[in-house]
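Hello,

Our lab assistant flagged a job as stuck in the queue for most of the afternoon. It eventually completed. Since we weren't sure the result was trustworthy after the delay, we are filing this so someone can double-check. Below is the sequence as submitted and the structure that was eventually returned. Let us know if re-running is recommended.
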Amino acid sequence: METIAVYVVLAVQWIGTAMHVLAIVLGLWAFIDAFLRPAEHFVAAGKRTKGFWLAVTGGAAAVIVLMGAASMFGLLAVVAGCVYLADVRPALKMFKPVTVRSRIRRPGRGGPGTGWH
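-- returned structure --
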């Protein structure tokens, strides 16, 4: 029985460590994404300013690293990162640059099998 208890304790420790690392990655991902987005996109999307989200996500990442994800403030930090990634990031993605095709098809200039003879 003692052997099973040892393995259960080890499994719980590994799961806790994995969740802590996952929370750190989530916080850093949110901060880096907010850092890389142009400030105009935040205003155009109707969200708070870029500085606000940099402060929130950066503070959240710091709290997770320093206090752990299982603390009360750590849980709030994880929620802050999740709010950015689930609400703000999709709104900002609508404002990414549109790629334009470099070549326009014209009748008589298509290759074989394109239907443009």
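-- support follow-up --
The delay was a queue issue, not a problem with the job. The result is valid. Residues 19 and 117 are 60 Å apart (CA to CA). The helical segments are 2-36, 39-44, 50-67, 72-93.
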